[in-house]
From TrEMBL:
Residues 1-28 are annotated as: Disordered. It comes from the Eukaryota. Residues 141-242 form the Fe2OG dioxygenase domain. Residues 1-10 have a biased composition (Acidic residues). Gene3D superfamilies: q2cbj1_9rhob like domain (2.60.120.620). It comes from Phytophthora fragariae. This is Fe2OG dioxygenase domain-containing protein.
Amino acid sequence: MSDSDFEESEWPFGGKGEPEDVPVPSGTARQISNVLARADEQAGEYSFGGQAETLPAAPGLVVNEVGSIPVPITAELAQKLIEKCSKSPFGQNLETKMDEAVRQSWQLEPTQVSFENMAWQSGMEKLGQVVADRLGYRDIPLQCVLYKLLVYGEGGHFVEHQDTEKEDGMIATLVVQLPSSHEGGDLVVYRGGEVRHRHDFGKADGTSAFLPHYAVHYADAEHALEKVTRGYRLALVYSICLPPTMRHLEKAHDKPLSEDLAGLIGNMDDEDEPFALLLSHEYTVKNIQDLGTGALKGVDSARFHALEEANTLVPTAKQLQFFIVRLTHKIEFNPGRNMSWIRGNRSESMRWYSISGKSFGRARKSTKFNFLNPGHETLSQLWIPHGVRQEEEYDAKASVKKLKITKYTRYALAMWPTAKHPGHAMEIMPLNVAVQVFHAQKPVDAATLRAFMSNIVARSRAEAGDPAFVRGFFNNTKVEMRKKYPLVHCLGLGNLKGNGSLAPVFTKIARTFDWSDFGEAFLDALVSTHKHKDEEEERIGYSSLEMALLFLDGLDSGAARDALFKLVAKKSVDLTSEELCSCKVVGLLLKWVVHNSTDSAVDKVTNTFKQLDPSLLRPSLLENALECFNGGDANDDKMPDAQFPDNAKVEEFLHSPAATMTMTKGVRKFKGVRKFKGFQDASNYAAKWMREAQVNASFEMEASAIYADAVVTITKTPKWFAEGQHTLGQYKVELAQLLEYAGETNSYARKRTRLG
């Protein structure tokens, strides 16, 4: 991997410039990038928390004159502990007061508390580093000074208030809740008079009684402890302080970074493009799917939380939509003369996730992002360290040749305003997401619906790699045609190659929206026939009548079904014997026209069937479907849709009928897969990929040594096949229904004798 991969100044996902150039985003994104640049050295999060992973679940808490306090504390021991405590006061106008209506809890001084578990102190030191980073004091040794041990019983609470400065140089408060079995007692942090953060200390996920949790807020942040409704809560309160020699570094957090960002987000221009923030750390698919943005580390976490917090300060209509996206830029190199390599094709793809880690799938297209660059990195720094080169072998006319591939892969946070979400989802996200987003938009006017239909057709076929479709789709773009036909890009659906794939999309639209908004234009597009130029007949798709039958069969009732049925009945009357025999959906024709029609169409279609020339009959498509179900090899171990992003040869094996393969430098058909440095390297590799999500596949990986060479053996397991049996059963039921509609039986599983 080197700058020479981009010597034409074309960088991944729309980047342009020389390797040493520092890319600068355009529009409002430029200002957002500049504000985020302060995150590393200036801004911190206003409040944050979660599971205290650095701390042991059993702290070994010991209280003077009480003894060891196991957690979660029992009611009996809690009462014994409370007897040694004093009631907690509160400060008001420089006075210390006692009022259980304001605060009800008990407290112990730090001199009365100790921890026998040696891991507690080291864990607190590590937690202190996390807190410092997220407060914006990276590499500053903040001090965690224990202030009090607090005990809250049923009814315990503390109304909205601000902490007083308990130590010199105090900048924030850290609350560590020991494993506690209780209900209620959330810590609520306010900002501008509104609730901005709520810390439940693990109650929502059921871990509060088993693991320690923590919460941090600035010392002067308004906050409250909601009433404990059951059980007891043990909490350690620490003051987070700057070291005496560094108190000049205290930040002015009266207007944190998030407020500056919120101002920019709330005033984004309509023309602003989708923008993205490249993540600085490396992440695995499993990390992202399991944790989403919770997997983010260091500066990635700080930047995202700053954006996320700013987003909460913006009106809902102006807020940003956040997504995680895995960007991949692939370059192929072909062998040239004199041991040289010639740069060949480039391709790009994006795999999308929600911020919770839900996978939306992959979009196989190239997109230009407006990249933020808060670290002021050069193009070379942004991409070159993230490239991986692989060698693959392919069969070119029976002679095995090598192909080098370099993949540049980075995770990024993609974002755009909510108002722009439908448009950007259609442009750059997987089609299933675009359909879901559009489906959630109600009401939608006719013009918007028609534009969406045009776009969905264009993308679905373009991404399928059908140049003929793309040419045909965009040939009908003359101004006068657009004026005459609202669905100009959908003109000529009849006979268009691959048009059957559009049935689910149009059926969902017809089920969701008012037929009067788009029905007339849709029928115009449906009855028009696509004209093929210099193409073989076998490339032609479903006819207008066949497409209408496919759409009709997906509808239950309503104006759309009535209109399509009327069209089917009308067009079926004019069928010739030859057209009837060549119909790809003859079963649906019988179902809808013969079984449902009450007019003369029945008689005419029935007579056409009766007058058929037997020599015209062709094998039913249902026969082919039966062969797919019944003719397969029960011992076939193919996993045709399996994905293994790290190694193309492993993915090839998963697609093949082979049951096992060995990863090493020179084994039969998988020669050149990978060479391991030693057994530990092979073992680490196997363990890594067993932790990863197995996509459309199930297998096991095990490291071993063969003649002193370290190898990894991959064995397919039946889990994936077992899960597929349920879907297969559904398909068979549907097939049986089609056979019934067509009046056919399972005899089609055998070779049918030609009549005549």
